[in-house]
């Protein structure tokens, strides 16, 4: 019981810090509420509000460009059917192939993690992010192209950015996988620069927790966002290649280790990009909190996932999320909105084709 109280207090402090950040974002001019999904209201139940002296959270105010003009109603007049088109396409693709939901969520992360959410990951030219080693197993490009083609015929040309399409597709993919819904703020512009070496800096599963925290912090995301967004690994797959080091650590459940070794066929693991294992060994197709309970059982697939339960900065959050499922859904919506707001471009172009910059 004592432990649960400790977890709760740490979580309340972190969530409080985040609420302050969001409150600041909402009070900034030109941002149309709600940036916060309605589910956020349920985030902290009254019994969680313990009378503790809180240290003053250090707030780094979002820059004006970050907040400049993202709004859920951005395309209300210029492309009223946008969200219906995206949802219909994502649903159709995921119904045909459920693995596409996870792939689209990951594609969105890899976009926002490099140069912000500017669709730089979609550019398909020599030396682009998409051609990087770290992007080898990214999928979903064709789905985004198909959505873009339909949007270009239904709405005025070059109105809806590829970055916005990818962001909304990630939300719809989450819902299709059984996860939460949130309002997507729109108005991102597409970037013109995309460099493979920058894509290779995205975490690949063998980093330590400090490196992960720093990577997230550099993008305006905090430790709670790190733990929550890593919860995306409740669905989807990894190549055997990405877990090759995990197979020789001791911080792993023995039965699980044996099963992974069997699935990955040990022998040619170093080059194995074609063999996959589920990121969530227990409920691989369902978006749920079991990812966190797996970590408690030393059944995290990626080394970085498992480390979240060993490090004192993140383990209380893992424990709280494992024991209180609704927290995961509510905070996932909030953290995904934050991810979608990373370094958004407020000026620039809307591409005609998501794979190429405009001539
Ligand atoms: C915390 C740092 C992270 C690390 C180290 C990491 C690492 C990885 C790795 C190694 C894979 C498997 C890649 C492969 O071998 O094919 C993967 C898959 C995936 N990641 Fe992450 N990831 C991180 C954060 C995130 C975030 C923030 C999201 C989403 C918001 C995300 C969503 C996913 C999804 C959904 C998959 C499955 C993709 C599929 O099945 O196609 N990851 N991640």
TrEMBL record:
PROSITE patterns: PEROXIDASE_1 (PS00435), PEROXIDASE_2 (PS00436), PEROXIDASE_4 (PS50873). Coiled coil: none annotated. Its cofactor is Ca(2+); heme b. It is found in: Secreted. The active site is at 110 (proton acceptor). Ca(2+) 2 binds at residues 234, 280, 283, 288. Residues 1-25 form the signal peptide. Removal of H(2)O(2), oxidation of toxic reductants, biosynthesis and degradation of lignin, suberization, auxin catabolism, response to environmental stresses such as wounding, pathogen attack and oxidative stress. These functions might be dependent on each isozyme/isoform in each plant tissue. This is Peroxidase. The lineage of its organism: Eukaryota, Viridiplantae, Streptophyta, Embryophyta, Tracheophyta.
């Amino acid at each position: 019981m004592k432990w649960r109280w400790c977890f709760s207090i740490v979580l309340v402090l972190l969530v409080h810090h985040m609420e302050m950040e969001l409150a600041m974002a909402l009070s900034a001019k030109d941002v149309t509420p709600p940036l916060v999904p309605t589910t956020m209201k349920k985030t902290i139940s009254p019994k969680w509000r313990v009378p503790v002296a809180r240290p003053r959270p250090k707030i780094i105010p979002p820059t004006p460009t970050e907040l400049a003009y993202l709004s859920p109603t951005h395309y209300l007049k210029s492309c009223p059917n946008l969200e219906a088109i995206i949802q219909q396409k994502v649903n159709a693709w995921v119904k045909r192939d459920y693995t596409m939901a996870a792939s689209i969520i990951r594609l969105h992360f890899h976009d926002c993690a490099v140069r912000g959410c500017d669709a730089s990951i979609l550019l398909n030219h020599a030396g682009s992010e998409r051609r990087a080693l770290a992007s080898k197993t990214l999928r979903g490009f064709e789905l985004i192209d198909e959505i873009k083609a339909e949007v270009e015929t239904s709405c005025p040309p070059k109105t809806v950015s590829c970055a916005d399409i990818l962001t909304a597709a990630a939300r719809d993919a989450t819902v299709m996988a059984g996860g939460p819904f949130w309002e997507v703020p729109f108005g991102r512009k597409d970037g013109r620069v995309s460099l493979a070496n920058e894509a290779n800096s995205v975490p690949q599963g063998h980093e330590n927790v400090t490196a992960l925290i720093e990577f997230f912090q550099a993008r305006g995301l905090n430790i709670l966002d790190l733990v929550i967004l890593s919860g995306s690994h409740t669905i989807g797959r990894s190549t055997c290649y990405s877990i090759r080091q995990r197979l020789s650590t001791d911080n792993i459940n023995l039965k699980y280790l044996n099963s992974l070794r069997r699935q990955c066929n040990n022998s040619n693991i170093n080059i194995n990009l074609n063999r996959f294992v589920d990121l969530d060994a227990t409920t691989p197709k369902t978006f749920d909190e079991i990812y966190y309970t797996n970590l408690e059982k030393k059944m995290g697939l990626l080394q970085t996932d498992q480390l979240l339960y060993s490090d004192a900065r993140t383990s209380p959050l893992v424990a709280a999320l494992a024991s209180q499922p609704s927290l995961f859904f509510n905070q996932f919506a909030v953290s995904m909105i934050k991810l979608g707001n990373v370094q958004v471009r407020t000026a620039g172009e809307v591409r005609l084709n998501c794979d190429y910059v405009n001539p």
